[in-house]
């Protein structure tokens, strides 16, 4: 995906340690969970339906190579999240700049660190434009992803990245508003588990509205070009 990918993937990459250690891991012998598959498929269909309906009904849709902007952004319900510093994260933190939200969790073995590494690459290549883009990891694993854990994880990639989460049932409500599906997947030993989740990047405009989605597989050059277009737009 980029030349020095190995140097970007952090120490948080999974090993075979149990989930209760200082650097817990995702078990490698995960069982198939048909409920999870259905939930993720449903989330993908929901996002696809939103994007397709918007494109069909609104001529002149901005053309992006790795995603789509909604011509009629969706108002989000009230947010009641906690960030990596243990501080409230609400709509106030979404005002005045674009925000890119990535659903994931810090014990993720591959997709999450790879995507955050890519976003760091894109952030660097945006140069001064990056000041107008906030990158947020939305953790779907609040049981393990404490503010301290989130801070250690996201700042490994960039001191500008933020991490947020919340407990249930609010986590489910926020996830549904963002179009995120997630489910816990039991591991091979007692107390071990992983999280399956949808992985689209969610774009929030400077008014705090859901403005679009970027869908994988992500390529740094395409996402960079798309975000340059987005950052040049008025909300």
Walk me through this protein's architecture.
The protein is of the alpha+beta class and 235 residues long. It is 33% helix and 22% strand. It has 6 helices and 10 strands. The protein has helices at 5-8, 34-57, 111-126, 147-157, 170-178, 220-232; strands at residues 67-75, 81-83, 88-89, 98-104, 133-139, 162-165, 182-186, 193-197, 201-204, 209-214. An 8-stranded mixed beta sheet has the order 1-10-9-4-5-6-2-3, with helices on both faces. Strands 7-8 form a two-stranded antiparallel sheet. A hairpin with a 4-residue loop joins strand 2 (81-83) and strand 3 (88-89). Helix 3 (111-126) packs across helix 6. The protein is globular, with a radius of gyration of 17 Å. The protein starts with a helix and ends with a helix.
Overall structural class, as computed from helix and strand content, comes to alpha+beta
Low-confidence stretches: 1-39, 41-60
Q: What sequence of helices (H) and strands (E) makes up the elements?
A: HHEEEEHEHEHEEEEH
Radius of gyration: 17 Å
Helix content: 25-40%
Describe the largest sheet.
Answer: 8 strands, mixed
* Overall spatial form: globular
**Count of strand segments:** 10
Strand ordering within the main sheet: 1-10-9-4-5-6-2-3
- Helix count? 6
Average pLDDT works out at 80
N-to-C CA distance? 30 Å
Strand content: 15-25%
Protein traits:
235 residues; single chain; 33% helix; globular; alpha+beta; eight-stranded mixed β-sheet; two-stranded antiparallel sheet; disordered N terminus
